[in-house]
Amino acid sequence: MPFLPTAARVPAARIRRAVLPLALCAGLAAGLTGCAEDPDEGTNGVGKLAPDAIEEKAQSAADAAKAVRLAGTLVSKGGTFKLNMRLKDDGASGSVVTKNSTFELLRIGDALYMKADAAFWTHGEGGGAGGGQGSGTPSEADSEAADKLQDKYVKVPQDDPSYKQLRGFTDMDLLLDGLIGLHGQVVKGDRDKIGGIRTVKVKGGEDGEGGTLDVALEGTPFPLQFARGGGAGVVVLSEWDKDFPLEAPAPGQTLDYGKQLPRT
Length: 264
What we know:
By secondary structure, the protein is of the alpha+beta class. The protein is built from 6 helices and 12 strands. The chain has a 12-stranded mixed β-sheet with strand order 7-8-9-10-11-1-2-3-4-5-6-12.
């Protein structure tokens, strides 16, 4: 057997002691790399897109949807409205709350029904249920009519001036077009969660002055929340594509108003 120099005859134990720290360091580095959070892991990939492409994906998803629930507050020159509406292509049902009154709306095709509290029938502009004008104080006829009409459905005639305004609260396409559009240069914002679903924000302008839209990062990239610019309200959009029944009120729950509805 040939003679080996002393330097070449390193004990096996010493080799193991030298290799072990290197292996631990390599494993630790790999572990740290694996633990780094990937914000797009397990998502639909929309978060990787440019902000205008994210908005386009959300708009396309909303346009293709068959149903949605829209709930939140809208502030406009006409006042503040709190909406809780379930909407689909051929109708809607839900409630609208204003400063002075609360009313429910039900639309099946072109047939529009409204159920309002007594305050609606006595505080409408241009007179209450009994036709009193301008005093601001309900007449006795107004109060009597309001007592009969409250909690009953009234079918809104299509030639009534209020029909178009009230129907607007039940029109899915109209509401979505008016509520989830961003204005100004679109920029990408932070990640968030709406209703337990991960989202990415896209904003109109750096500060969201043109609105801020939360788009789902899980499943279909539906818009899940829209904050209007200037503090003009926030609406949450949920139950996308979940159908719901629409049935006309029973005859005993419907009354004929017989005159022009109050404007509110």
